[in-house]
Amino acid sequence: METRRDPRQFLFFIILLLLINSPETQNPGYNTRTRYDEVLEREWQHLDILNQTRWGDFGQFGKEGEGYLNVTGLREEDGFVWDILGGVKERVRERSKGVLGEEEMGRFLKGTDDEEVIEKPRVYKNLTGYAQGEWVRSPLSRIRHPVDLNVSHVLPDNPFPFAEFDRNLTGVGGPVRLHLTELEGKARTDTNRSISEIQAKVVIGDHESWGENWWEFLAHGVHYPEYGVAILTTTSERFAGVFALPHMQLSSHLYSSAQKLLNRTLHETMDRQVGRMYPVWNPWTSSVEGTNDGALGATHCEVVLFLQEFPVALENKPGGQQSLPGYSLDWLEHELRYPTGGRIPRRSPLTMSMVAFSPDCGFVIESKGPPEHSPSEATHLTGSKTEEFNDRARHGILAFAVTLSLQLWFLIRQAKEAATPSTRNRISFYTVAVMALGDGFAFLSLVFMHLFLGTSQLQLYTIAFLALFSVVLELRFLMDIWTVQVTEQMRQDRQQASTPTPPSPQPPATPNPQPRAPPPPSPTAPPPRSTTLPLPATANRPARPPTPIIIPSDQDFAADDIPTPTNPTTTPAATTPARAELGALYSRYCLFLIILFFITLQFTTMRSTARAIYFNTIIFLYLSFWVPQIYRNIMRNCRKALRWDFVVGQSVVRMVPIAYFYGVEDNVLFSRTDWRALAVLAGWMWLQIVALKSQEVLGSRFFVREGWAWVPVAYDYHPILREDEEGATMPIGSSTAPDSPTETTSLQPGESKGKGRKVFDCSICAQDIEVPVIPSGGGAVDGAQGGGLGSLMLQRRGYMVTPCRHIFHTPCLEGWMRYRLMCPNCREVLPPL
Ligand SMILES: *[C@@H]1O[C@H](CO)[C@@H](O)[C@H](O)[C@H]1NC(C)=O
Ligand SMILES: *[C@@H]1O[C@H](CO)[C@@H](O)[C@H](O)[C@H]1NC(C)=O
Ligand SMILES: *[C@@H]1O[C@H](CO)[C@@H](O)[C@H](O)[C@H]1NC(C)=O
Ligand SMILES: *[C@@H]1O[C@H](CO)[C@@H](O)[C@H](O)[C@H]1NC(C)=O
Ligand SMILES: *[C@@H]1O[C@H](CO)[C@@H](O)[C@H](O)[C@H]1NC(C)=O
Ligand SMILES: *[C@@H]1O[C@H](CO)[C@@H](O)[C@H](O)[C@H]1NC(C)=O
Ligand SMILES: *[C@@H]1O[C@H](CO)[C@@H](O)[C@H](O)[C@H]1NC(C)=O
Ligand SMILES: [Zn+2]
Ligand SMILES: [Zn+2]
């Protein structure tokens, strides 16, 4: 069996995965430069047109191409549906008026900036943050087909001119999320910051597309901070969006301010483009980092977005300190950003209304909310500023750190408890392995999380270290379990291999420890007479092989007890392959973890349905980590593998982050809530815990039928004792065994027989055990004992009978078996619990 793995093998695999995942690089073709010059040339022309046009030059369509401009996308032959622009603008005006009020709206459109006007709308000047909600399709929408769009006219080398467009929203609704960014120093403004640049990442989905598709794209535009209005657009080879932005404005005043700003900023951007060593094809690209613009010839719909921020409502707590009369929102924004300890009043969330339309694909969508929909149904797009989001993220990270530490604590307690080979032998390897995989996954996610959150890098790394620490501990624990179980497995294999051979060499080879002193914790040494008895007892039990049971399972640590192993070659032979397999185990763990991580990354960009199915499945499998333990309990017929606080603690602590992402509406990863899936997962967890608990109470095989073939015969330490003539199944009591009525210390056998009980002696604690016994004769079982059979099931948990027919209290022998897997009386090897 080849077990050693070459680590280079999976290094190669990782590199392969990285190559697959990296975005395609633009390959510098032979006429790249000339193409780049063409692109720049076109941009200068567009800027020239922007510089020269005036308000109203575009949009009043007449005959003979009147009203069109010689800008990509704004030409007549491009086939865009510009005739809906007027209707859309009307709609935007209506909505903004609803938010700002008639008077404000007038001032906004005309730009009359009276100094007397103190009461400006209370909107955040810095929109950096996010907002999410639902969109609905507007009746202004049209359906356009790729044939109408004359793609081959603009992109002659597109191989699929009639392929369906990306971002083609055809449903009546879906989710939408905006991440707005305007960075100080980077976003250019005019002198008074009445207009500034803004950028948005839009994540938009469509409920009615197949598998609930969703798209992510960038839009660039301008923001009027005083009134909370922003207009953004995508830009591509088919649509020179930013150059046309002033023509999307609502009034001549806004037109000229946008034109002034764009004239300057576009000029600067293009100057930088010229000086670049590597071509920057489109500085205003709508494709998100890492994806390719129009990869595989897929064309996408262009989108123009109109946003209107709602005024912030400040809620004063009753009884709280009254805010200053002219409470300045500027102060609040500053305080949020640079906290000085001032009391920040409660306030409404960042809310925005949105109208968006696609000039080529023809859809018009609006954010869902009042007045068309009741506020209880939807309230446009709500979210929060980045500072508040970062606060939430920090709290989330802190909470996760607490759960990780608790998890670690439970693990350490369990590992301490399972310090002996016989206790380790009970624990399922796969249960701990799944936990270790989960923590390894958490570690990898935490390391890469700050790329997504864009904040709290230091905290994330600290917690990643905590996760790594618990992975290391778990792997260490796994190694211990593995070593013990492999040794045990090999012992059993050897036993099976040696069973068919006739036991001819048995008498000389048995180092039966008869002449040796009994081990220290058995104060009441059995009388020498009893040591002869085990031999017939073991001989007539076919399941147990007669010869090699003398080889102790705990040979690695009980060297002081066993001076010389029967055959010295077993010890080195056992450890070398075990270590090799251990190495294979680690590389398998790492490999599996990395593959899992990459598959998960791939699935994060899939359609919503596929993504939900994948994550539900993965989390369900992850949360099944008690199943291997339940299975192992059945196979080995053992009950007390794990501490009870470990089982409950790990279950709860591992459920907490999952519950957060499934149940909390505005969680930091923006995952959609799914209460049904969460209920299923929690129920499944609960079911496993109940199964474990009932295995402990009722016996590990209480739900397993006798005849099931996959369950091996295992020794039952808690047999129901029946009295028969020979007394072959009765324990050998040192005091009141039925065949030794010579003892006088306890009750007489005849006396106890009458009550259906017998009294034995536990040699570990030197106390009596009173044991229920079914008397001989079948009539008594269903007659007198009929009602008592159920209680008999529970009573038999109180004592344990070894294969060598010695009887002990359950706690006594369980405590003993944590250290030695041999009978305290006669030193015969005991099957593990
Ligand atoms: C913009 O137009 C003005 C005249 O209206 C002209 O002087 C100037 O050079 C133009 N700028 C650009 C960048 O084309
Ligand atoms: C539009 O501009 C191109 C050059 O960029 C020019 O060849 C073409 O004649 C112009 N079309 C109109 C209608 O002005
Ligand atoms: C497509 O573009 C060509 C010019 O390349 C033009 O003649 C034709 O009218 C356009 N078709 C449509 C449907 O706009
Ligand atoms: C958008 O989707 C609709 C419905 O599937 C389809 O009929 C139309 O051709 C698509 N339009 C584009 C531009 O892909
Ligand atoms: C807006 O707030 C964000 C987050 O604090 C900050 O990074 C950015 O520089 C601010 N932008 C402006 C223009 O102040
Ligand atoms: C900025 O504001 C001052 C007065 O507050 C005004 O005189 C000036 O014209 C404004 N500048 C711009 C570019 O709006
Ligand atoms: C655009 O900028 C140029 C200088 O780059 C300036 O001459 C011109 O007047 C500006 N045009 C408008 C409309 O602001
Ligand atoms: Zn006892
Ligand atoms: Zn014994």
From TrEMBL:
Stored PROSITE patterns: ZF_RING_2 (PS50089)
Its BP terms in the Gene Ontology are: proteasome-mediated ubiquitin-dependent protein catabolic process
Pfam families in the cross-refs: DUF2921, zf-RING_2
Keyword list (alphabetical) reads: Membrane, Metal-binding, Signal, Transferase, Transmembrane, Transmembrane helix, Ubl conjugation pathway, Zinc, Zinc-finger
Q: Where are the coiled-coil regions?
A: none
Compositional bias annotation for Pro residues = 500-529
> What region holds the RING-type domain?
762-827
Q: Which residues cross the membrane?
A: 396-415, 427-452, 458-479, 589-606, 612-631
Residues annotated as signal peptide: 1-25
Task: Spell out the Polar residues composition-biased ranges.
Answer: 732-749
Q: Does the keyword Transmembrane helix apply?
A: yes
Query: What Enzyme Commission number does this protein have?
Result: 2.3.2.27
Q: In which pathway does it act?
A: Protein modification; protein ubiquitination
Task: Give the CC-aspect GO terms.
Answer: Dsc E3 ubiquitin ligase complex; endomembrane system
Membrane topology note: Multi-pass membrane protein
Annotated compartments: Endomembrane system
Catalytic activity as recorded in UniProt: S-ubiquitinyl-[E2 ubiquitin-conjugating enzyme]-L-cysteine + [acceptor protein]-L-lysine = [E2 ubiquitin-conjugating enzyme]-L-cysteine + N(6)-ubiquitinyl-[acceptor protein]-L-lysine
Under which main EC class is this enzyme filed? transferase
Describe its function: Catalytic component of the DSC E3 ubiquitin ligase complex which is required for the srbA transcriptional activator proteolytic cleavage to release the soluble transcription factor from the membrane in low oxygen or sterol conditions. Required for growth during hypoxia and triazole drug susceptibility, as well as for virulence in a murine model of invasive pulmonary aspergillosis (IPA).
How it assembles, according to the record, is:
Component of the DSC E3 ubiquitin ligase complex composed of dscA, dscB, dscC and dscD.
User: What protein does this entry describe?
Assistant: DSC E3 ubiquitin ligase complex subunit A
The source organism is Massarina eburnea CBS 473.64
